[in-house]
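Hi everyone, sorry if this is the wrong subforum. Our group has a chain we'd like a structural model of before ordering constructs, and none of us has done structure prediction before. Sequence below.
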Amino acid sequence: MEKGTQKKKGERGTTLNRIESVDVFKLLAIIAVIAIHTEPFHGLLPESPADWKYPGMVINQLARFAVPFFFVISGYFWGRRVRIRGSVRAISAPMARRIALIFVCWSVIYMLPYNIGAMAEYGVSAVIRAARLNAASLLDSPLNLMMQGTKSHLWFLPALLCALAISWPLVARRRHKTLTAIAIILYLTGLLARSYSDTPWGLHWAFDTRNGPFFSTIFFISGYFLADLTPHPRWFARGMMFFFLGFFLHLAEVYSLWRLYGRDPYNQDYVIGTFCMGVGIAVAALANRAFCRNAVLSGLGRYTLGIYAVHHIFVDLLRPLSRFTNSWLWQIGYVILVLLLSLSTVMLLSRNRLTRTIIM
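Answer:
Right subforum, don't worry. Here is the predicted structure as tokens:
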């Protein structure tokens, strides 16, 4: 979720403006992330092939482009800055420190007993006890704590940091082929140990390969290599074609894994087709077509990092309301409420110099 502004810090003082359509697509992507976590129209899991068209399933899988898109865009702007500045270290070191700071701060925040909804249902002591048990569980698994933090969605930040750590020395040495090979091996290994783990060629690891460098690296370096190219309006059509190709491949893979190996389709976030989805949307966004530019939406898109960090607080706070209604209005309203509350919180935090550092 790297910001879309690049500045040359040097003698020429060249400034590359934000790409407005990228900010608009970032807003769409953060809505998709919220949809994954609020699970609109989830209902029952599919029990027969006829249930595959259930809207919750389609929404869940369509939204899987979002985090890969954020990785690609982060790699793209990192690559642009590296090419302008000419020093990988000068760009990478501050970026790594910033990611680490945001990760640590939000991990601390999510340790707090913030869930008022659960307090009303179970009492204050129960919520505090749950927070304490969660802390104890995390301390018993330091690797998960490092790679995921205190809330599951925070995995994005250390995964991005891992991708940066792998790319940094290899790009500095111009070892692009080695970097590409490592990224592909990591991605395939991640698939075999996650979505494809129950297939005859699957791997059975205790470690969740969604975390760490397994999936983030290939998207990050794809963005880096895109930074070598000059965006063109034709990129939009090509990117969308690549996205839809990936989406149908993604659906076919998830459907096959469900039917043949009983893999829960709601938990399949990365398959082979997901790569095309993430890169395709990023290419379309970089085209910066006029119909994808909107000043208001672009302005809101600049808050996506903060929204990503804070939104799970409101997902948890509002979740108890889902027990009282299955109305389609609530299914949509849940997503909208989480977005609006998260956006309002981030805009408020952005007004303070200290809190701004952990949301933008």
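For your construct planning: The longest strand covers residues 6-7. The beta strands are 6-7, 15-16.
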